[in-house]
Amino acid sequence: MAHVRITPSILNADLDNLESEISKISSVSDLLHLDIMDNKFVPNLTWNFEAASEIIRKSSLPVDAHLMIEDPDIQAPKYAEIGCASVTIHFEAAQNVRATLQAIRKEGARAALAIKPNTDFEVLRDFRTELDMILIMTVEPGFGGQKFMQEMMGKVRKSRELIGDADIWLQVDGGISTETIEIARNAGADTFVAGSAVFKAQDPAAMVTQLRKLATK
Ligand code: DX5
Ligand code: ZN
Predict the structure, then answer these.
(1) Hey, what domains does the chain have and what are their CATH numbers?
(2) Pairing state of beta strands 32-37 and 63-68?
(3) What three-state secondary structure class fits 131?
(4) What distance in Å separates the CA atoms of residue 122 and residue 63, rounded to the nearest whole number?
(5) Which residue in 4, 38, 143, 155 has a CA-CA distance of 20 to 30 Å to 176?
(6) 49-58 vs 72-81: helix axis angle to the nearest 10?
(7) Is 146 helix (H, G, I), strand (E, B) or coil?
(8) Residue 65's closest CA among 193, 188, 197, 196?
(9) Using CA positions, which residue lies closest to atom 7 of ligand 1?
(10) Could you please report the per-residue DSSP string of 54-118?
(11) pLDDT along the chain (217 residues), means of 10
């Protein structure tokens, strides 16, 4: 079994006490998943580049930036440059997917490509050699706390096949909880975003540990 990574999303954490929220999960998590939304690509607004930079600078965990914005070609390399460990762009938003993935890598971050639920798996094939991570969205991007779309598991299985023995992580994002993580793991995912499951739990660190255990067994 591939290495399992748990990447908590702070979208539904207590945003007034972010540092303390991050510190609750930092010793048990692999990366911090940061959801950047511009109210254009998705109908929700989170942090702009300046605000995100501050979170990234202060975070005790390496950051996995998920860019749900309409101009990732311009923004993504900037997130890589300021030290994100991984930067994800959406296929549906990027003007030049290949060049943007290459620019992310050039700045020293892992380059990742996400597809929304209605986007065909096949679009990913072309970019295999440019990718360090594939993100299969298991909800419509925009909000935390939505229901896991099990019908996305076909795309996860196909991604696992496409990856073969390449060093490409396979992430799922949306509705991951103790109820659903094994379904995603069985389909081939190895990197799991969990937002509300972690930050609505009484003990977020224990929840991360429990999710990891379920994904590993
Ligand atoms: C949704 C975001 C997710 C979100 C996941 O657009 O990309 O990262 O925070 O939240 P949960 O785990 O609650 O579905
Ligand atoms: Zn996300």
Answers:
(1) 5-215 (3.20.20.70)
(2) parallel
(3) coil
(4) 28
(5) 38
(6) 30
(7) coil
(8) 193
(9) 141
(10) HHHHH-SS-EEEEEESS-HHHHHHHHHHTT-SEEEEETTT-SSHHHHHHHHHHTTSEEEEEE-TT
(11) 90 94 97 98 98 96 98 98 98 98 98 98 98 98 98 98 97 98 98 98 98 96
pTM: 0.98
Phi, psi angles (nearest 5°) of residue 10: -90, 10
| CB contact at 8 A, 156 and 189 | yes
Q: Which amino acid is at 38?
A: D
Number of continuous H segments (helices) and E segments (strands) in the chain: 8, 8
Q: Dig out the tokens for 128 from the structure.
A: 């295999």
| Top mutation candidate among 6, 9, 140, 148 for ligand 1, by most atoms within 8 Å of CB | 9
User: How far is Cα 55 from Cα 57, in angstroms, rounded to an integer?
Assistant: 5
Q: Which atom of ligand 1 is nearest to the CA of 145?
A: 13
Place of tokens 């660190």: 205
Note the pLDDT of residue 2.
Answer: 66
